[in-house]
Design brief:
The chain is α/β, with parallel strands linked by helices. It has 16 helices and 9 strands. The two termini are 31 Å apart. The chain binds coproporphyrinogen III (CP3).
Amino acid sequence: MAETKKLLKSLNGDVQTIPPIWMMRQAGRYLPEYRATRAQAGDFLSLCYNSELAAEVTLQPIRRFGFDAAIMFADILLIPDALGADLWFVTGEGPRLSTTTTEQDFGKLVHADAIHDHLAPIYETLRILKRELPAETALIGFAGAPWTVATYMIAGRGTPDQAPAHRLKAENPALFNAIIGRLTNATIEYLSKQIEAGAEVVKLFDSWAGSLKGADFTNYALEPTRKIISALKARHPNVPVIAFPREAGDGYIGFAKATGADCVALDNSVSAQWAVDNIQTEVCVQGNLAPQHMVTGGQPLIDEVLRIRETFSKGPHIFNLGHGITPDANPDNVALMIDTLRNG
Ligand code: CP3
């Protein structure tokens, strides 16, 4: 059957005059209705695990802006939570986890296929969304890529340079590899269940891929992504996968071919023309407007939207930001971005 949803068409390789658009962190703190629902849930994690309210915040930006895709509301750190590493969020600071740095810590984690009871509310969120989304809106599931999730598990929090994870990789490679292996397997199980619950596309967020260099990039960004995609394709051959090896630089080149990804998401440090010449020749690309334009708006935003649309216009493209929208963004600028893309 021919695809009718704009997002799925681009992932299928179609070139569209007006590309589909969605936005990383489109459900988030820049929206007053999100802040109200989060307050109703109590806190961020309670919101993630409350299927009705998580579906509600997923739908808010669809109602307000009419994006072509909805990304289920959850977080990449729910996998370590499900594996048994304690997770909590400190308001204004970010995530905290119990650290996994010794064989003893690792021994306390559950097996990759024992995560589903804990993650059942996420699958329920997807089933609700499947029912409630407009017919033209694609539903995206996601997970963190193993390296990025491991950096949080090892450090117990976000870090500017991922130093604790790099240190464990150097000092105890057996344990480090065991953590990556467990996360790889858990991610396969998690994404498979998301697909069974209604996700039509899945995305792997490797936000810290850029700190892996040389053989480390191959072993810990590319290889786990390849394993996950190959297992998913064996089970669900028609479900497209978007890979986001953020700030990979030259590592973006050939990444889709090597991993089997159907689309590569670009951060805003790469130039659009470079991506056209080096990546869009082989695969659909997503991106890559700088999130700052959602704060500043005006003519520079309009110019950038038109420039990016034009530059990517000869191949398959999904319009998006190069990273998540920030809490200080103005929703009016989001509306302006969409109007410019569709009518400008
Ligand atoms: O994009 C979406 O709308 C879907 C939901 C989503 C969230 N996080 C919700 C969220 C997705 C896809 C993520 C991915 C995620 N989470 C990543 C990868 C993408 C990236 O941004 O690089 C990472 C590294 C995380 C881990 C995480 N979650 C951090 C470091 C933080 C704190 C920083 C921050 O932005 O506050 C979070 C919290 C978080 N995840 C929020 C949201 C809406 C804000 C929490 C709040 O409402 O208080």
